[in-house]
Amino acid sequence: MTADAVYFSLMVGLGETYVPAFALAVGLGEIVAGLVATLPMLVGAIFQTVTPFAVRRLRSYRRWVVVCAVAQAASFLPLVVGAAVGRISLVWLGFATVTYWSFGMAAGPAWNAWVTSLVPTELRSRFFARRTRAGQAALFAAILAAGFLLDAGRHRDAELWLFAVIFAMAAFARLISSHFLSMQSEAPDLAAGHRTLHPEEIFSAVRQARSVRVFAYLLGVQAAVHVAAPFFTPYMLGPLSLSYTQFMVLTAAAFLARVAVLPLLGRMAHHRGTGFILWWGAIGIVPLPVLWLVSHEFGYLLVLQIFSGTSWAALELATLLSFFERIPDEERASVLTLFNVGNAIAIGLGALLGSWIFLDLEGSTSVYVWLFAISSTGRLLVLAALRGTRPAHDVGNVQLRTLAVRPSAGLIARPILATLDDDEPAPLHRAGDAANGPGGR
To answer: Fewer CB atoms near the end CB (10 Å): N or C, the chain?
Structure first.
């Protein structure tokens, strides 16, 4: 299981993280680079709703998860070919990223149910903390390696060939991950008891848990954030003229800041509840986009990324805990599906609005000013949804798994449901496990 974590992390760091940069390198433009990092997530979130049918059809969580892992590995093939020949059509790029996200997210619910039966309750906190650390190390190494390789390729006129190499390595890493998944056991007839709530039951569970305000805030803030977030990679590699090494360092800085601060946040949440860190994160992310316009000095941007990572870590941990705390254990998997779909819709709407603004102002020197200002304004306005929310207090040792690495936020993570009710004291609350299950990038 830990080996699966490591190789999955390598795939994320080498592959998905650099797809928007690849879209820019082959000349598809800023809008495509922005949308390719967001809209496929929406398709993937919707596609994950086939998981209950697939699990029942295959009569196995393991079979479905392995099928998804292999399909996710295969999604890199069009990217490898496109990079090798020096061009790729928008259709093939879209097909590759939609396939990646569809099968990555479809594996998530099944993996969450499967892993609960594999790891005994008394071992979960320590096991997943150690597994997380292994995944974090692999992810960090992969981000660094890919950045250095691409920078070397750019200076030697072999940039696209190096993209082909790192995408091939990402596909191979996912295949190795799928092999380790296939080696894990599954209790007989485990999948026979799989049940998914109907939509009205899911909404009822969210209302009864009094999580509606938190959910509304999350949808609003995701839409506001993704007016600008898809364009951070084009902004960094375009107007800022950063090298791949500098781009990699800034991306890694936000990721490492999240990893470093989460133990402290976890202890604070465990002893004092999530109220303080919820507002710290929610207010902290408001000015981030416009602060990118203050200075282009690399040292300033590095400090800004560290602050960004800590703010996003606080917000993500507090909102996830507040949202899921009062939802019954047996309903969480279905609610997580709704959570993913809602977030993906909000991300897609925000990205489409940002793309429309970019297209309308394309060629203007103020296009990024407008995008970043609108994003900050939206983040400020949706703070109103948090008024009257009840922060989480019964905080266990929740572990998070990474869906994506993003320059603007460090990463996107989701909870491992098996750890939400773990009350064993532990020193760490970690995120950044890019391999805590196959459910995403």
So the answer is: N
